[in-house]
Amino acid sequence: MSASRDDDPRIHGIKSKIRVVPNFPKPDIMFQDITTLLLDPEAFKDTIDLFVERYRGKNISVVAGIEARGFIFGPPIALAIGAKFVPLRKPKKLPGDVIREEYVLEYGRDCLEMHLGAVKPGERALVVDDLIATGGTLCAAMNLLERAEAEVVECACVIELPDLKGRERLKGKPLYVLVESH
Amino acid sequence: MATDQEGKDDRIARISSAIRVIPDFPKPGIMFQDITTLLLDPKAFKDTIDLFVERYKGKDISVVAGIEARGFIFGPPIALAIGAKFVPMRKPKKLPGEVISEEYSLEYGTDKMEMHVGAVQAGERALVIDDLIATGGTLCAAIRLLERVGVHVVECACVIELADLKGRERLGDKQLFVLVSSL
């Protein structure tokens, strides 16, 4: 069952540090900027702690983070729970053998890649990104891990845009977020 | 019992052996230093971060600037451990809101690096982090961005140095700390 953490006293501080930038990257989009959260060491630490408290001791051996803002939140979580960190990247960034997953954007397509051999069959994995909007990128990430026969335990994001219904696009997998933005 | 230096050497050895070299990436003749295999070894990754944290904790550093994208992997854990803010230094048009921008040279052409206006204050003490230093061009651009707003760049820190490319010399009076030097 998916959950958000409205009742934890640290959530208010985290939410207040997220900056909304209007009309970025295009008109009418209210961009949820987490960089201001990163400027507050206590709030950034609280953000990581909330994820770590949830996932520690759950036999999770893989934290997959989506380029590029998933690279900011994923590694501290991985380090704290003793898991490996697996970067999921835009095309042609990862050297060596990769598997690719194409996904649909509002206009056109994009692609996510993962290293061959980064995860082993049966490993339990989290997928981490700063935000879930339509869920397209997270879905592609989950597909990559499942193609490598890992088990996706949960997707974890700092922010959810619930109006975009990304939660429904996660093939029945649970989603955990700290903050919702309408 | 291992001395501090022996313990440190053991960690460096493990880190070094966890880095994978990929020939001819992204183009023929380049031996690419791949840190993703380091990230697959939780102990080696933790040791990497610990070695930086041991050096920088308690030195009154309030800013860790990380260069997109692999600097985003190493910078935040260091920032969290030493109680500093993390400031992402990004490719053009990725940061929303007001930015300052620094152009720098590539082998062919130029690129740009951006930092948010107001992310750092004059007088703050900063580290610049990336996975690797090659020619030093990118690190230089990051140093310039920070110095333009009055920040004191204490040191640049990378996991790997490609010593032959003499990036260290390009940093002028700035110090460079690396864990692994690769020829």
TrEMBL record, chain A:
<feature type="domain" description="Phosphoribosyltransferase">
    <location>
        <begin position="41"/>
        <end position="164"/>
    </location>
</feature>
<dbReference type="InterPro" id="IPR000836">
    <property type="entry name" value="PRTase_dom"/>
</dbReference>
<dbReference type="GO" id="GO:0044209">
    <property type="term" value="P:AMP salvage"/>
</dbReference>
<dbReference type="Pfam" id="PF00156">
    <property type="entry name" value="Pribosyltran"/>
</dbReference>
<dbReference type="InterPro" id="IPR005764">
    <property type="entry name" value="Ade_phspho_trans"/>
</dbReference>
<comment type="similarity">
    <text>Belongs to the purine/pyrimidine phosphoribosyltransferase family.</text>
</comment>
<protein>
    <recommendedName>
        <fullName>adenine phosphoribosyltransferase</fullName>
        <ecNumber>2.4.2.7</ecNumber>
    </recommendedName>
</protein>
<keyword id="KW-0808">Transferase</keyword>
<keyword id="KW-0328">Glycosyltransferase</keyword>
<dbReference type="InterPro" id="IPR050120">
    <property type="entry name" value="Adenine_PRTase"/>
</dbReference>
<dbReference type="GO" id="GO:0003999">
    <property type="term" value="F:adenine phosphoribosyltransferase activity"/>
</dbReference>
<dbReference type="GO" id="GO:0006166">
    <property type="term" value="P:purine ribonucleoside salvage"/>
</dbReference>
<dbReference type="GO" id="GO:0006168">
    <property type="term" value="P:adenine salvage"/>
</dbReference>
<dbReference type="InterPro" id="IPR029057">
    <property type="entry name" value="PRTase-like"/>
</dbReference>
<comment type="pathway">
    <text>Purine metabolism; AMP biosynthesis via salvage pathway; AMP from adenine: step 1/1.</text>
</comment>
<dbReference type="GO" id="GO:0005829">
    <property type="term" value="C:cytosol"/>
</dbReference>
<keyword id="KW-0963">Cytoplasm</keyword>
<comment type="subunit">
    <text>Homodimer.</text>
</comment>
<keyword id="KW-0660">Purine salvage</keyword>
TrEMBL record, chain B:
<dbReference type="GO" id="GO:0005829">
    <property type="term" value="C:cytosol"/>
</dbReference>
<dbReference type="GO" id="GO:0006166">
    <property type="term" value="P:purine ribonucleoside salvage"/>
</dbReference>
<dbReference type="InterPro" id="IPR050120">
    <property type="entry name" value="Adenine_PRTase"/>
</dbReference>
<comment type="pathway">
    <text>Purine metabolism; AMP biosynthesis via salvage pathway; AMP from adenine: step 1/1.</text>
</comment>
<dbReference type="GO" id="GO:0003999">
    <property type="term" value="F:adenine phosphoribosyltransferase activity"/>
</dbReference>
<keyword id="KW-0808">Transferase</keyword>
<protein>
    <recommendedName>
        <fullName>adenine phosphoribosyltransferase</fullName>
        <ecNumber>2.4.2.7</ecNumber>
    </recommendedName>
</protein>
<dbReference type="Pfam" id="PF00156">
    <property type="entry name" value="Pribosyltran"/>
</dbReference>
<dbReference type="InterPro" id="IPR005764">
    <property type="entry name" value="Ade_phspho_trans"/>
</dbReference>
<comment type="subunit">
    <text>Homodimer.</text>
</comment>
<dbReference type="InterPro" id="IPR029057">
    <property type="entry name" value="PRTase-like"/>
</dbReference>
<dbReference type="InterPro" id="IPR000836">
    <property type="entry name" value="PRTase_dom"/>
</dbReference>
<keyword id="KW-0328">Glycosyltransferase</keyword>
<feature type="domain" description="Phosphoribosyltransferase">
    <location>
        <begin position="42"/>
        <end position="176"/>
    </location>
</feature>
<keyword id="KW-0963">Cytoplasm</keyword>
<dbReference type="GO" id="GO:0006168">
    <property type="term" value="P:adenine salvage"/>
</dbReference>
<dbReference type="GO" id="GO:0044209">
    <property type="term" value="P:AMP salvage"/>
</dbReference>
<comment type="similarity">
    <text>Belongs to the purine/pyrimidine phosphoribosyltransferase family.</text>
</comment>
<keyword id="KW-0660">Purine salvage</keyword>
